[in-house]
């Protein structure tokens, strides 16, 4: 069941769904930076709202009508600080003249500083739904379990069976008039589709991962896959467009659901975060250095292999890991490091803001992309690390997942692909580059060139902007009549 809509007067100041005409769509303009928060007692969903003051849509163009900036509503079940692709999309669309509202969530206190950093300079409107209450989480979890039982018996209620966040996202989207709704992640897809239907507009979907392949091939995960596929099967065919973050993810979605191949929009990063010029080697001390980062430092990321590799590499590299450690996992890495004689060469760094990753990465010699390929999705994705390293001018060392092997061949780095379960192969590769200063300098110069010329967000965002323009055609407002004497 969808939660009741808030009666907050600040929300009611926004245009109502009934004021909107059920026609097609087009682009948007910068939104207000001011953030306005309703009282908790008036916030059934405890949402943090930056009101949009969104214009109402009017019927298709007639004589004398002029185009106006459409409104785009982006919906994600994650916090802004954990979904950099959402933030980049929102800012790119604002920069192209669209008006943008982002509906996201608040789930972890540890992510709040990143959210605040983003909102301090954001040009889009934001509504952050607070999901941190344990009591409310239990209520939503009970509702999810009930929806799963109903779905297992009747095949209905799939929208609420997959993730507890879907219901509050849907309630927020339904009261946010827009000209196009874009869902990120499956939990947001029902919200985008339902809101689009209510407001008589279209919706789209961004697949950062191949979500049916998120889990290992194991019957224990059949239930999760079933609920997910019920959602994507129901809604993907109705999308105005679908985007994917990697070529093989696009292929997988086209094959799995018999839809047109999604448009690939790589998860690239702004060129202005890059160093001005390449450097011959990193500045991190002690060195030589191999660098890796993620939100979490945990298993199934190829780190055990990397620790063993630095232990047997002749060049005695130091491994630097940045992120929040999963409890007990760093202790396991230190145990392995002690066994291979690298106890003093394993370094754990504090997490930092997403917008600083490129500058921080540039301080190291090489970047590690050690995806283990343990799930179908992991074998198909191209990680944020890879493109961060290129913008930073850092040569990536890649495990041989299908997606990484393919892009390595494209960027001339096929000789930097190692067998993902072989620490000996990784050690040999490290020695070849770290033991040859000239080869390292050439690789760093080439990585910097690729980041500046091709693999940057300034280049890639044009695909996204063009798609949204095509999906939001014919948004107009009447031309004001001039007064006659």
Describe the protein.
It holds the Pfam family Glyco_trans_4_4. The protein is of the alpha/beta class. It folds into 2 domains: 9-268, 3-Layer(aba) Sandwich (Rossmann fold), CATH 3.40.50; 271-455, 3-Layer(aba) Sandwich (Rossmann fold). It contains 18 helices and 16 strands. Strand 11, helix 11 and strand 12 (346-349) form a beta-alpha-beta unit. The protein starts with 8 loop residues before the first helix and ends in an 8-residue tail after the last strand.
Low-confidence stretches: 1-65, 476-485
- Please tell me how large the radius of gyration is: 24 Å
Number of helical runs?
Answer: 18
Beta strand count? 16
Number of domains: 2
Looking across the biggest beta sheet, what order are the strands in?
A: 1-5-4-3-6-7-8-9
CATH class assignment of the largest domain: Alpha Beta
- Beta-strand fraction estimate: 15-25%
Which architecture of the largest domain per CATH? Answer: 3-Layer(aba) Sandwich
**Given the helix and strand composition, which structural class is it?**
alpha/beta
Largest sheet: 8 strands, mixed
According to CATH, the fold-level topology of the largest domain is Rossmann fold
Region (Disordered): 1-52
Protein name: Glycosyltransferase subfamily 4-like N-terminal domain-containing protein
Domain Glycosyltransferase subfamily 4-like N-terminal: 81-265
GO molecular function: glycosyltransferase activity
Task: Draw up the topology in text.
Layout: H1 9-12, E1 47-49, E2 66-67, E3 71-75, H2 84-95, E4 99-106, H3 112-121, E5 125-130, H4 134-154, H5 158-161, H6 166-174, E6 180-184, H7 189-199, E7 202-207, H8 222-235, E8 242-244, H9 247-257, E9 263-264, E10 289-297, H10 303-312, E11 318-325, H11 329-339, E12 346-349, H12 357-361, E13 366-369, H13 376-380, H14 384-392, E14 396-399, H15 402-410, E15 417-418, H16 423-434, H17 437-453, H18 457-471, E16 476-477
Helix pairs in contact: 2-18, 6-7, 10-11, 10-16, 14-17
